[in-house]
Design a protein that fits this description.
By secondary structure, the protein is of the alpha+beta class. Helix content is 30%, strand content 25%.
């Protein structure tokens, strides 16, 4: 089956052997964030180190990570996290799939890899019994915001700040 030109079987759970390529992509995302907010993000940093990434990959039921594998080359990834609210005094019980990070190699964007990864994550969430799918987009990242709106997402809440 095709999802936006990408074969569904090209998306699979990440493996330990994907780590080096995932780090390359993590650095691409980090540079975008640093460019938007150098007051918040460190230059040349990545969201996860080797130990943190290994821990994520060892908990696929709680923190599934999926990659798009095109002939042995990881062209994109989606990091997910299952979150649950239970017994809260205000909010209803809910199971959510939170997209922690989604990246497509900057040289390969426009080929609908991101759409395929997003669709795969949404299908995974449905099968896992999730009510919704959530994520955060940094202000100023208009390309990401436009992409997620195109995928069908809408603003759930707004996080504001005042720099002192």
């Amino acid at each position: 089956m095709h999802i936006f030109g990408i074969h569904r079987q090209m998306i699979r759970p990440a493996r330990k052997s994907d780590t080096a390529r995932i780090f390359e992509l993590l650095h691409q995302v980090a540079e975008i964030h640093y460019g938007l907010r150098p007051d918040v993000f460190r230059a040349g940093a990545a969201k996860y180190d080797a130990e943190a990434l290994a821990a994520l990959l060892e908990q696929p039921a709680r923190t599934p990570v999926f990659v798009c594998d095109e002939g042995g080359l990881v062209t994109g990834y989606v990091f997910c996290r299952i979150e649950e609210v239970r017994g809260d005094g205000l909010m209803k019980d809910v199971k959510t799939l939170y997209i922690d990070d989604l990246c497509v190699d900057e040289a390969l964007r426009g080929r609908h890899i991101g759409s395929a990864l997003y669709s795969f994550a949404a299908d995974y969430a449905r099968k896992a019994g999730c009510y919704n799918l959530t994520l955060n987009v940094w202000e100023g990242n208009s390309a990401a915001l436009q992409f997620y709106v195109h995928c069908g997402m809408r603003v759930r809440k707004t996080c504001m700040e005042q720099i002192l």
